[in-house]
Amino acid sequence: MFFKRLTIASLIFAAAAFAANGARVAGYFPYWLQYSQFTPDDVRYEFLTEIRYVAMVPSEAGELALADESDLANFEKLASLAEKNKVGLIIAIGGAGNEESMQGLGASDEALSGFVKSVKETLKKYKAAGIEIDWTPEEAGDIETLKKIVSALASADVKVSANLSNDASKASSYGHEFFDKLSSASIYFTDQMSEENSSVAPNANLKKAKEVIEAYTSAGLAAQKIVPIIPMYGKSFYKAKGLGSSHEGVGSGNEGVLSYKDLMKAFDTPDYKVTFDEGSWSEVAVSASETIVFNGIPSFREFAKYVKGAGLGGVALYDLSGDHNEPIVSLLVTVGQVLRPDVNYQPKKKKK
């Protein structure tokens, strides 16, 4: 009975914290969008609380630089528009392929000190709200380095988020002290199906994500700090007949990857039968030649309702270029209607 009362009290507290602090609805803007038709002007800032730019990378001395210097104009425009629209700019640091640069910060106190200084200068210059450490180490030594980096930043009054492992067994590897220093914690629930899998599984199993999140809250991470990251793209597999079936490699799209907005175009034809899988909170599209696993409006809505009910910090969408612009089929709008219902999601009237 005591446990039951405690559980109810915890849920009430979580809901109250959610209402008081408001939910984050974040979107990612990677530097490689400069090579697409999606620009900072295309971002729907009115539907966001945060925009996360990917990425900057520290040098051996700890000085920050853009992962791709040719994206400077885009980044500066994004920072300017984020400020103008009162959307928090979060700068992701690290990213895939830059693991050594992050490891180096733990090996040199001088480099770490230079890194903290460079972070503070960068945040001030671009009026950014904070940073996200885009590095998810698995080895114990690297996790200690991550803790050291976060501790140094937090001690310098930097609002720092960190990407945590989506392996539930790793939740206890971080510790309360580390969790307390974070302003938020991101957990990627993307790319859970690849060509290496012999049978088709969801691209993002959002029901299983609950187990991971609950492992972190049990390990001492405050629910209101957790911001799950979910994908706005799907993956195709040739000759597959649905979830659990075998396949013969990737199917249509860019090496088997299709943005959500491109999926909506493909599904305008009668070629695909699309269903919602209750067991994974994900969508499956099957045609005569392939199966596509993705997350659409039903799964985004169910997950957003879970986020709200559990008092989590919000949701981050990866990445903004993949969404559909029409509000009625937009994933950003779907999430927003649950987490930020006071926002006007009606399409803007075109100027005559």
Could you name the key traits of this structure?
alpha/beta; disordered N terminus; 352 residues; 14 strands; 36% helix; five-stranded antiparallel sheet; globular; eight-stranded parallel beta barrel
Layout of helices and strands:
Layout (H helix, E strand, L loop, with lengths): L1 H20 L2 E7 L19 E9 L5 E3 L5 H13 L3 E7 L4 H9 L1 H18 L3 E5 L5 H16 L4 E5 L11 H6 L2 E5 L17 H13 L7 E6 L1 E6 L18 E3 H7 L6 E5 L4 E5 L3 E5 L2 H14 L3 E5 L12 H9 L13
Parallel strand pairs: 1-2, 1-14, 2-4, 4-5, 5-6, 6-7, 7-8, 8-14
Antiparallel strand pairs: 2-3, 9-10, 9-13, 11-12, 12-13
Radius of gyration: 20 Å
The pLDDT mean sits at 93
Structural class: alpha/beta
Could you give the order of the helices and strands? Answer: HEEEHEHHEHEHEHEEEHEEEHEH
Largest sheet: 8 strands, parallel, barrel
Total strand count, please? 14
Strand residue content: 15-25%
Name the poorly predicted regions.
1-21
Number of helices: 10
Overall geometry comes to globular
Q: Which percent bin holds the helix content?
A: 25-40%
Strand order, largest beta sheet: 1-2-4-5-6-7-8-14
N-to-C CA distance = 64 Å
